[in-house]
Amino acid sequence: MRKSLITTFFSLISIISWSQSAAEIKANPNKFLYGEGNGASIEQADKQALSELISQISVNVESRFSMDVLAVDNSGNKAESFKKEKVQSVVNTYSNATLTNTERLILSDEPEAKVLRYIRKEDVQKIFDQRKNRILDFANEADRYISQAKVADALKYYYWALILLKSHPDANYLTIQKEGQPSPLINWLPARINDVFDNLNIRISGWQKEATYQVANLGITYKNIPVENFDYTWFDGRDWGTVTSAKDGIGFIEMPAQSNFTSVKMKAEYMFTGEARADKELEQVMSATIPVPFRKAHFEVTTVVETSAMESISPVAVTSMNSVKDLVVDDVSQYKPIVKLVSDAILNQQPETVKQYFTVEGYAMLTQLSSYGKAVPMPISDLKALSANGKTIVRPLKMGFSFSNNKKFVEDLVFAFNEQNKIESIAFGLNQTALDDILNNDAWPPEERLTIITFLEHYKTAYALKRIDYIESIFSDKALIIVGSVLKMNPTAENKFQSQIITYNKLSKADYIKHLQASFRSKEYINIEFEDNEVRRGISKGGKGNLYGIQIKQNYFSSNYGDSGYLYLQVEFPDPDTPVIYVRTWQPEKQPDGSIYGMENF
């Protein structure tokens, strides 16, 4: 009994103490903003308190939001009422990222829970400063991408920066420093987006007619440079189609067989609403703000055949081939007829018709590829070949792939012929930038450069074709496999404004393979693109071959999920055909100092 009374006494003292703190907060409106909530549970009361706090912040910053930025029709009281609602909706987008980490006082416990959420007024600006920094990061990232003709990535980050800007109370006054001069972001971002559209050139190089549809082959350049990537859709006379991704300046459109247009309406993708879903904060902002339309995103492309349109789009840069000129095969005439037959077999989903040109393993890959969506015919451009380690690598056969109600994209098919002139493997090729980065690196002999390229192409292909057996075979039984994950942070006094932390989980090889199997079953397709790779050589672990540390940015797309992150692979080659991966890590973001996992960490 005495113990119970003591407990009750100290509980009462605790509540009185917190109540006095709450009273002090309420008595200082110039210093604090707060919200109070009641409920049967702490969670319910906390949600109500947070909602009220957001409302108070909205009122506090409403005057800073521009009517132009919110795109509100200024027609008297109705417009003012709408603005209040819109401001609160926009401020609410900060809740998931930062406001959940405001200070919290539990004034009474369940079942009559009472919670106070509060924030110091001086700290409110820190919340908006975080979004300002993110806007600038997106804008600078977009500038970097457009300098590399990565048009899809550039448009995405310019537009996302613009949408986040519309959610900032000081949108009309924020600037970006370019060429030593500050430029208002509210003008600079739309100008940059329109400049990208102004410098795009889309040409139709010819039509290929099939039984039920016809395909136009596109040549796409930015400032006369083949685009590394570009997402678009087109109008088929009834509706806009699904988004399609061009690669290395090559794209395609499909039309009904009976279509006879003198021009085709096309539209560049720049909002990337689907990809924004992976970022809850960005997704909320896009839902709360009015979209910004860009008329220049629309193109009308003539259907007149331009036979020279594709000739200016070189499938493999001459400089890259010159960097490994000792490996170049001058005469590829013996391979062209086989590649054409294989192309037809994939298009018609009849791999058995070309079985005689494949090894057993190569044919197994062909059958998997034949069921990888619907293949779309594209012209066979000028093939190139490199020979090393008893193999001849022939590239690229451009081929489009489409999936029901999902994204369409262009891939390069790369064929490895053995000494008996049979195809022992097919892979999806690296994009031109990633290819150039490795081929032009003269730190290693040409044969080693080709080995690294072949490994990376087989690695991405294994995930695309869901080749579990191959993936299992290339990982060491004792491989260190680290996967990244993003977790919400609990509020602390030290980290009031940090919305999340990145944690890393170590998986055994068996657990990783099991995870992949479950993931593969849930996806209609997987598509992976690599960029920004850096390769370093290390000391062999087993003393049997060359050890390499490969840092590379990975863009992962699938029918139900997508992300971008940084991959590190530590791989040894006892011989060129048997890679052994000792370390595999993935992280969604770089470290604060700009680094990612590398050889020095392991």
Assigned CATH architecture of one domain: Roll
Distance between the termini: 60 Å
Query: What is the molecular shape?
Result: globular
CATH topology of one domain: Nuclear Transport Factor 2, Chain: A
Rg: 28 Å
Return residue spans where pLDDT drops below 50 for at least 5 consecutive residues: 1-20, 306-315, 486-501
How many helices does DSSP assign? 16
Helix-and-strand structural type: alpha+beta
Reading off the top of the CATH hierarchy, the class of one domain is best stated as: Alpha Beta
Give the tally of β-strands: 24
Largest sheet: 9 strands, mixed
Q: Which bin fits the share of residues in helices? A: 25-40%
| Average predicted confidence as pLDDT | 82
The percentage of residues in β strands lies in: 25-35%
Produce a short descriptive summary.
This protein is of the alpha+beta class and 602 residues long. The chain contains 16 helices and 24 strands. The strands form 5 sheets. Strands 9, 10, 12, 13, 14, 15, 16, 17 and 18 form a 9-stranded mixed beta sheet that branches. A 6-stranded mixed beta sheet has the order 20-19-24-23-22-21.
